[in-house]
Write a structure and sequence with these properties.
Elements: H1 5-20, E1 24-30, E2 40-46, H2 49-64, E3 72-74, E4 81-85, E5 89-95, H3 96-102, H4 104-107
Parallel strand pairs: 2-5
Antiparallel strand pairs: 1-2, 3-4, 4-5
Helix pairs in contact: 1-2
Subunit structure: Interacts with ribosomal protein uL14 (rplN).
GO biological process, one term: negative regulation of ribosome biogenesis
GO molecular function, one term: ribosomal large subunit binding
């Protein structure tokens, strides 16, 4: 089983929104075969708490425009690692230090990556 087309569309929109707010190291994984609760993860990071919040707000706004509302939003107070759960997808926006420490890419490396649209740019420092 693979991520649904709807999940892939949401991932693309979320990745574009993150890119628009200068997110770093944007990557998506198809976790549908590993998890029953969601189809895909999007990971993105930022160098500071303010930018983490900006990325989260933009992702949420863009996905609301597509009719997707978050079921859960966690970690917003600290701005170090914010999780947006949209059901079909989960978006993780992390401060770069948390990204390095928790290394979610390593945890999900056995899952296939989802190709992101060509206009999605991971802004590196």
């Amino acid at each position: 089983m693979t991520a649904t087309d709807h999940a892939r569309d949401l991932i693309a929109a979320a990745a574009r929104a993150a890119s628009d707010k200068l997110a770093q190291r944007i990557i998506a994984f198809d976790v549908s075969e590993q998890l029953a609760i969601t189809d895909a993860f999007l990971l993105a990071s930022a160098p500071n708490d303010r930018q983490v919040r900006s990325i989260v707000d933009e992702v949420e706004e863009k996905l609301r425009g597509l009719g997707a509302k978050p079921i859960r939003r966690e970690g917003e107070r600290d701005g170090r690692w914010v999780l947006l759960d949209f059901g079909d997808i989960v978006v993780h926006v992390q401060h770069e230090e948390e990204r390095q420490f928790y290394a979610l890419e390593r945890l999900w490396r056995d899952c296939p990556t989802i190709e992101l649209p060509a206009d999605v740019v991971s802004h590196e420092r």
